[in-house]
Amino acid sequence: MTENEISKIVFESGLKIHRKLGIGLFETIYEECLFYELQKQGLIVERQKFLNIQYEELVLQNAFKMDLPI
């Protein structure tokens, strides 16, 4: 699957959730719904994944958090 195909699925899923739930809910609700929709579409998705950043010999543990890496 190409990046454009994945992007289309993510965009359309987000739009579907927005149309059904509207605005004003907590971010975690939208995140859980998007996680569900993306899995339903056959994508491999994780939640709240932490990444380390390395600069020369320095390693910054859990320096970056991705909400829904695909």
Helix-strand string: HHEE
Radius of gyration: 15 Å
Major sheet, described briefly? Answer: 2 strands, antiparallel
For the largest sheet, list the strands in their spatial order.
1-2
Task: List descriptors.
70 residues
Characterise the protein shown here.
It is built from two helices and two strands; from the N terminus they run ααββ. The longest helix is centred in the N-terminal third of the chain and has 19 residues, at 3-21. With 70 residues, it is α+β, with helices and mostly antiparallel strands. It is 47% helix and 23% strand. The chain starts with a helix and ends with a strand. The chain is globular, with a radius of gyration of 15 Å. The chain has helices at 3-21, 27-40; strands spanning 49-55, 58-66.
Task: Write the SSE topology.
Elements: H1 3-21, H2 27-40, E1 49-55, E2 58-66
Antiparallel strand pairs: 1-2
Condensed summary:
The chain has 70 residues and is α+β, with helices and mostly antiparallel strands.
